[in-house]
Amino acid sequence: MLSWRISLGTLFVAVLIGLCWWDHHAAIPGLVLFPLAIALTILAGEEFLQLAGAGGLKPLRWAVHGANLLIVLCSWVPPVCLETSGGRAVSNDAFAGGVFPLDTIRATDQWLVLAVAAGLFLFFLGEMRRYEKPGRVLVNLATATLAMLYAGLLVAMLVRLRLGFGVGALASLVIVVKMCDTGAYTVGRLIGRHKMAPVLSPGKTIEGAVGGLVFACLGSVAAFAWLVPAITGGDTTGSWWSWLAFGLIVGLAGMLGDLAESLIKRDVGQKDSSRWMPGFGGVLDILDSVLLATPAAYACWALGLVGR
Length: 308
Known about the structure:
- The protein is an all-alpha fold.
- It has helices at about 1-25, 35-55, 60-85, 100-105, 110-130, 135-165, 165-190, 205-230, 240-270, 285-300; strands spanning about 195, 200-205.
- The chain has a two-stranded antiparallel ribbon.
């Protein structure tokens, strides 16, 4: 099983690197990676609904998927329309550094807010349509809303991170989070003695968590010292202390993301979000730490702790 995980993990990394390189050189930022975001939104949303079903919860499947797709579409389509309107020609050098201007990103934020509001409207409309007797409406509405925020809005923020700050920002997020996962697993297996969350996730230890944060900081320094400048073709802003801060903040958020999905699975009595990838579980099992770390990474870039 370990060799299978290593082989499949290597394949995933190679494919992701290739897609990121292609996307960085695309005529429009996000053109290559956006279909992947759509696919991940659908798969993650479906796995969340399956977990909810295992717990006896029955939010409207079509409404959740519709809201999630609308939110992710509104994360990419409005900036593209705004930047390519007025007869502007699109070429490989039309967008400096492979990103949209930050003013364009901020000017289209309201579309995400409207998409979330439209999703809530859709949930209420669907529950009104199928209402028969009291007792399940509130829990179905709450479950559908969580599914929309978790598998829809967080993926949309991932798209926004790439559009506003480039493939380097996306790479730094994934590197820090996965280095944190690797460090926590390795250190925990070697010297882990004190359980961090024995009821929620018995395999996680305090020593592993500390090791994970150390690995996250090392990954952050490596990303900003070499990878991000290599991608952007220039120097990256920030200093070693800001890179360490990024590693700590994003690594910690990633750990909470891992525990958050463990909380959901534990509550409904499931080990994995799905079983279609032996050794890895499902899409949510791979994305859990990345999803909750995305707002933290976005805040670090947007507030100028790292990046442009």
